[in-house]
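[recover] target loaded
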C-alpha cells in the first residue's frame, strides 16, 4: 500500500500497528482513598471516621398509618356545593317571581287599554271592498297575455 509522505516535522505512524501494549495484572488507581464520614465527637466537634468502621444501621420502620374510614367526598366541599346549589335555586326562583310580576303588569296594561278603547267608543269604521278579475293566457315560447 502506497501512502503519501507526510510533510516534514509531522509525526509518522505505521498503519495498522498496535502502539499501546495491553496491561496484564491488577489495576491500581492513582488516587484511591477510602470513604470518610464525619460524625459528632465527644466535644461537639465533627470527627472523621472511615465508613467501613461505622455500624450498619437497620432501616427505619414506616410510621403506623391511620386506617379509620374517611368520607368519600370532603365535607367542606359538600357544604360549598350545597351552598352553591341553594344560591342557584334561590336565584332561579326569584327570577321566576320577577318574570311573573312583569307578565302580570303587561297583562294589566293591555286590559286597561282595551277598557279605555271600549269607553271612548269605536268611532266610525270604513270598509273598502274591491273586486278585481285578472285573465292570463299563455302560448308557445313563453309568451303570455294578461288582461283585466
Amino acid at each position: 500500500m502506497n501512502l503519501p509522505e507526510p510533510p516534514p516535522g509531522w509525526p509518522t505512524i505505521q498503519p495498522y500497528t498496535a502502539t499501546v501494549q495491553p496491561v496484564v495484572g491488577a489495576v491500581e488507581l492513582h488516587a484511591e482513598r477510602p470513604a470518610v464520614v464525619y460524625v459528632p465527637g465527644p466535644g461537639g466537634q465533627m470527627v472523621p471516621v472511615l465508613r467501613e468502621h461505622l455500624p450498619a444501621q437497620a432501616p427505619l420502620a414506616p410510621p403506623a398509618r391511620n386506617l379509620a374510614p374517611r368520607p368519600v367526598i370532603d365535607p367542606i366541599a359538600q357544604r360549598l356545593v350545597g351552598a352553591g346549589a341553594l344560591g342557584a335555586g334561590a336565584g332561579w326562583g326569584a327570577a321566576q317571581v320577577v318574570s311573573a310580576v312583569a307578565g302580570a303588569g303587561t297583562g294589566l296594561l293591555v286590559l286597561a287599554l282595551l277598557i279605555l278603547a271600549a269607553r271612548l267608543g269605536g268611532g266610525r269604521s270604513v270598509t273598502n271592498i274591491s273586486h278585481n278579475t285578472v285573465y292570463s293566457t299563455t302560448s308557445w315560447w313563453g309568451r303570455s297575455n294578461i288582461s283585466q
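[recover] notes: The two ends are 117 Å apart (CA to CA).
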